[in-house]
Fold each of these.
Amino acid sequence: MKSYIVKILQSVYITHDVKCFIVEKPENYDFIPGQATEVAVNLPGWEDKLRPFTFTNLREQKHLEFMIKIYRDHEGVTNLLGKTNAGAELIIHEPFGAIQFKEPGVFIAAGAGITPFLSIFRDLYRKNQLYGNTLIYTNKTSDDVIMDIELRKLLKNNYLKVFTRENVIGFAGKRIDRNFLIDNIADFGQHFYVCGPDDFVKNTTKNLSELGVTSDFLIIEE
Ligand SMILES: Cc1cc2nc3c(=O)[nH]c(=O)nc-3n(C[C@H](O)[C@H](O)[C@H](O)COP(=O)(O)OP(=O)(O)OC[C@H]3O[C@@H](n4cnc5c(N)ncnc54)[C@H](O)[C@@H]3O)c2cc1C
């Protein structure tokens, strides 16, 4: 598997537990919006601990960007990334991933599952093709929402936030279950893009299938 050592140029927390990394882009490196790569930290003992993370920048930019949720509760790679900053090195590999834009539709994300959609939205917005897409984005609380201001700017009214653990006035405070989908989606004949923790993707796609969405209209990470 081909690998590239890239320097971290900038790192900054964008929520209480999500850190944004700007890193060098290898020459001729390219990806499709929505794709990810296996990332390791270039430190002794960590070089072979690969974890997948999604590019969030525009492919035309001269750098790469990742938004990474840091799990501080155990000594994994993201915990180390929480303490890793500009000047340190990462090892990245070739891009991979099944999530990419096909046709306008409904994007349903949970937590850090927004990253492939952010990449797709930024690309469509740049091409003036974002119209007709809707985002339903669920998080535990409003503090967990990644890139809220930008998502609002990109999607305007086609952006619905769902909080599972708080009731914020003006926003739905519940889970994205079957009833939620029936109440909030008028057309199950369009494309659906789903990304988030495994259980979330499993439950949501099961509900969508039962509501008539066929597998070729469902885009998820395999
Ligand atoms: C294709 C793809 C793209 C992805 N893109 C992104 C992205 O852009 N941004 C992003 O933030 N994430 C993304 N992820 C998820 C990301 O890969 C994982 O969060 C990451 O691999 C976790 O690495 P880790 O070594 O810190 O945790 P791991 O050790 O790999 O553990 C992962 C999970 O298990 C739990 N866990 C495991 N062991 C313990 C323990 N001892 N104590 C407590 N909890 C434990 C963690 O809470 C966490 O939920 C993506 C995943 C896939 C499959």
Amino acid sequence: MDWNGKYSYNFPTLVRFGAGVIQELGIYLKECGIKAPLIVTDPGLKELPPFESVQQVLKDANLSVSSFCDIHKNPVKSDVQKGVDYYRQSKCDAIIGLGGGASMDVARAIALWANHPDNDLFDFDDAKGGDRFVINEIPFFVTVPTTSGTGSEVGRSTVISDDETHAKKILFASSLMPRKVFADPELTYGLPPFVTAATGLDALTHNIEAFVSKGVSPMCDGIALEGIRLVFDSLTEATLNSDKVARAKMQMAALMGATAFQKGLGVVHSLAHPLSTVFDMHHGLANAIMLPHGIAYNSSTSESRYKRILKYAELPGDSSQDLVKIIRELNKKLGIPSSLSKLDLDWSEQNRERLASLALEDVCHQCNPKKVGLSDFKQLYTRAYES
Ligand SMILES: [Zn+2]
């Protein structure tokens, strides 16, 4: 770290954490003067108990509750347009993002667009400095995660794709930080083992990639290290036994991962994103399979960082190879396939080329400690398929 440099840090998210905190949501909104909140969630979750509990809590506080769930797994602009229309028609005065990454992204994008009727949603594209268009007040916005992985509940950006081209746009504004996050591990008790494992390994990847990324942030480094320790301490128990304390630790590790990756992510996320675009693969699963390869790739630049992870998390060994071995063993225990070849993918040359070029376009690897080129991406995908 260059101690003569100049840096900006931002850690102000208000988080209410713990089993049962969701019971406070209705009263909180009422005290803030809210009368008609809109719950934004995905169609799957709408049929499950967490949605029911949240709706009940709001009704118990005599709030007029509406809900919107007409969204895609990889949300597109027309989802957001429908949500904004619904928000206006229903005369809502607050937005609750309930669920995993997709719900949170759409909820945040509705909040961004609702009071900016003269703009196109993609005016807010972060790549074009879109936050300069955010001039009006953002509706009252809170988040309630129901998985422990993405950590998007503590973020200020949202990823929405173009309906036709599928190009992903990152929309960012500092005012998109939720007023409050209600992180209640009870809402994750019913998650099936695969979702627990895959989302948990996403949280692990966020913490590890943030810790070794090129960014400069000792605060993020500290958060990432403890986040990593919590995952190794609890993910197996959370997945195999749905242990309540382990579930709480994983929820915290997910919050920490997304807080830490303000510093940056790396090659693993750039490898994972195209696997979701091309094969519709679960984001956490893609990260879980690519993580050992990303660590091996970065070992020449980041060996001392990987050693620090082992030491801090009290894991056996003292090299990046040992960390790779530990992650492979963890994946195995959690039922994650060791190789892409076990996933019945169309591994044609055309798809392989497409994966590598999408990975190169992805922004995450710009923070990777070691430069990654097109041939490196090709080689990493091949290794992950042939290993
Ligand atoms: Zn991720």
Amino acid sequence: MGIIKPLPDLLISQIAAGEVVERPASVLKELLENSLDAGATKIDVQLEEGGVRLIRVADDGSGIAPDDLALALARHATSKIGSLDDLERVASYGFRGEALASIASVARVSITSRHASQAHAWRLRSDADAVEPAALAAGTVIEVADLYFNTPARRKFLKTEATEFAHCDEVLRRMALARPDVAFTLSHNASAKRRLAGAVPGDTAAHNFARRAREIIGDDFFPHARPLDASAGPLRLSGLAALPAYSRAGRDEQYFFVNGRFVRDKLLTHAARQAWADILHGQRHPAYVLFLELDPAGVDVNVHPAKTEVRFRDARGIHQFVFHALQRTLATPLSAAESAAPAAPAYAPPAFSYARQAGLAVGEPAARPYLEFARAAFEAAELGVPPAPTSMEADPGAAPLLGYAVAQIHGVYILAQNAAGLVLVDMHAAHERILYERLKTSLDAGPPATQALLVPLVLSASEAEMATAEEQAAALAELGFAVAPAGPRELAVRRLPALLAGGNAVELVRSLLRELAEHPASRVVETRRNELLATMACHGAVRAHRTLGLTEMNALLRQMEETERADQCNHGRPTWVQLSMADLDRMFMRGR
Ligand SMILES: Nc1ncnc2c1ncn2[C@@H]1O[C@H](COP(=O)(O)OP(=O)(O)O)[C@@H](O)[C@H]1O
Ligand SMILES: [Mg+2]
């Protein structure tokens, strides 16, 4: 009387489809990969209604013999590998033999193909039993219609037509970057969206790639992009990396390919982020198109059915190599033409610009020292004598407690001069403290002021993060966040506490989800409020290595003066120290 029974084949494929066929873009990815594996040099893509109604991919590849057509749709049938040995050094995009079967289990599929051995083409439809003769000169046409027609639950996850199309376009962009030798066209609802020519005969591969990269990423990126080509033993990293003058608010221009396959890999992203860390403002993201090549045996691409995750055998070595190769590239001195661009300083007369630079309105009492200095400078100029160095010496009482910023040291500390002498401020710690206190005050006063995001911020999320966001939606709302699923593995942030609008919201939401997942009580905001606020403040605060202007530095000093306990950061470290003139004198053994 057993109760365990094998699942029907169709159901198995539909379950597998959950992993491979997330949305139209994932179908397109599988079809493009198949065309490339078949040696296509020209691929035409037609989409209707974001790909939900129709995805049609036509290629000029090898074609499929009629006897193989049924097998192409069968689960675990592939022409690409035949042994474990093959699997360990797989060079094709596909090898699992499950994409077409999965797609055919959730959509109406037809394959039309003409193999070189055949006098004409043959067609097989997923709902028919036999092949039929068809008209096609060469290659293969695959049509996927009515995606999820038989699984309405999945259809509910689909977004608007425009969003699904955008995802499809992104898939095509990635493929096109990896394969500048192949021509692509893309149309949506019968209007042409992209036309990318293949390789120009006689042009070098580097030229063809540069032209393709320009078409895909655009003219703004290009002037700042630095070519690189580094190798170490079996490792090679090549492509284009943008100098810090060109950076992005998001990670949308980060393309990493491993052996020609687009991947989203934490290790590689981290190595890249580190290479840019010292030169890029903390809330900006670098732009790059990078190709890592290595022995296929050194990387496992069979981690996830969609194959955008990989696992490296020598993770440490790869990280080091990528980091150093990028860092070297970015550190190469600029050409004369490039360095001439930022060379002209914007000179402004000292008069009122000092007060303005300090972020002060002319009428404010705190602006007085600046204005006095400005007037003194004017008078001195008229009298032909040099002005007094600062008005604070003349009237120490008018100067604010933390004084005025003079400089920023290595992007970490602010140096300020006050009445007593020298003030050193840890910029990040101080800002964190200010945000923390403000968040507390704002939450004490009621629901926090929030800011709706014009363009919701979308972040990819693990299943666990998705679940936490759902379970803790109320806690998140109490803290001022609106976070909702935007897809099976994507969260959209639509609203943030206004105080944190300038910070790195993605990191912020991730850390909050982590915190909330660890303490999943329903009253978590009440019981762990301050810890949560500290996390928020930490991610909302300016990062070290961010260049601040005098205005921003002085604004920070003024905020510190207004903030309770601003002298301690949330981790208990001091946020500023005072070195009095006497301290300085002692350092230099200077008798006073
Ligand atoms: N565009 C195409 N041109 C030629 N052969 C194709 C094409 N698409 C699919 N095939 C054949 O169908 C088989 C199954 O495809 P798929 O389900 O994606 O599995 P995989 O790519 O992992 O082998 C492939 O191994 C290949 O032989
Ligand atoms: Mg495939």
Amino acid sequence: MTTESNKEAPFHSGYAVLVGRPNVGKSTLMNALLEEKLAIVTPRPQTTRQQILGILNGENFQAVLLDTPGILTPKYLLQEKMVHSVKKAISSADIIIMLTEVEKKVEDEQLVLDLIESYSVPKVLVINKIDTTRKEKLLPAIAAYQGLDRFQTIIPISALQKDGIERLVSELHDTLPVGQPFYPPDMLSNEPERFFVAELIREKIFFQFRDEVPYSTAVHVESFKEESGKKTAIEAVITVERESQKGILIGKGGLALKKVGTSARYAIELFLDCPVYLKLTVRVRSNWRKNAQILRQLGYE
Ligand SMILES: Nc1nc2c(ncn2[C@@H]2O[C@H](COP(=O)(O)OP(=O)(O)OP(=O)(O)O)[C@@H](O)[C@H]2O)c(=O)[nH]1
Ligand SMILES: [Mg+2]
């Protein structure tokens, strides 16, 4: 009986765009929805720099999820490109999922609210990190957003503990328009493997280095060779802005870079599900974050 009715139920599909301030948990939520680690996650803001597409297939629906960089007031060209990529993602949205944290006030979210205001698609507010606070704090937060009257629903979740995810999935199913899937059901993303490899290296750099170093770093995979019976050989270049940063990344006797290489290799092997040989090189390109041509070469369109 159930199978019968599901067969007759119309298929829903569309683009669901995750937006919010840096560090609110967009990438964590994306991974929780997909039940896969696709987007990198670190404790520091501005981890994600580009739109990341992930395909969520459910019964009678397909949601094409777009994780985006945190919305901020840009101070240099890379950040301008980050904000531009958020706007581009939103322009293809069938539904906007705005994330906030339970501890954040509505005033802290003005930049995000302003950015999404002019889009007439349905909007869902997700209040994340509810595991970090007492239940009593949640009700005033929900009431404040209900007062704005901009969201079709408000869903409290913990992306980290995967709490509240089902409610969001069913909201996606119900809201996405009736239509055919955009991608085959076994596809997880449309980004090439080398993109995710570069991201995993960047993630390890975020974890290993402090202050400005991760923000001054870009990673680009220069060569990716798969040969049957052999380890997949990957060569990646880590670009930094100054000689001093190169020194920090390489470390005494090359130890720091070796540590990045080892932890990145484990993560890449897990992602690709095969043994990997990873070669890392560090290159200085001064002020790359402000240089349109270098940004393009590094993959930041
Ligand atoms: N306690 C708790 N921490 C969370 C939750 N969701 C995410 N985090 C943490 O918040 C930090 C930022 O998470 P991300 O998923 O990278 O956040 P983001 O919004 O993608 O950040 P940007 O890419 O920088 O914009 C990480 O340390 C996560 O582990 C949650 O539900 N509870
Ligand atoms: Mg992110």
